[in-house]
Specification:
single chain; about 80 residues; mainly alpha; about 0% strand; flat
Length: about 80
């Protein structure tokens, strides 16, 4: 009995998530049309590009630090 209850809750949550996803996508397209109409589309793209570039640079820097720490740890064990 308990398994069936969990299954129905999962189905209900999945259908709720699908509904919210569709409604959010429709609102996003309205927002995109508004931004395009106001000429702010390029500003949004520029901000997203800056954020994405910052994240990539942070991850590259973090990877280098971790690699350096691993090499130091390996040298200490030798």
């Amino acid at each position: 009995m308990k398994f069936g209850f969990n299954q129905s809750i999962r189905k209900a949550l999945l259908s709720l998530m699908v509904f919210l996803g569709i409604s959010t996508a429709l609102k996003a397209s309205d927002a995109a049309q508004m931004l395009r109409a106001n000429g702010k589309n390029n500003a949004v793209i520029a901000v997203l590009a800056i954020i994405f570039t910052g994240l990539v640079l942070y991850l590259v820097r973090l990877d280098r630090k971790i690699r350096r720490m691993e090499q130091d740890q390996k040298n200490k064990q030798s």
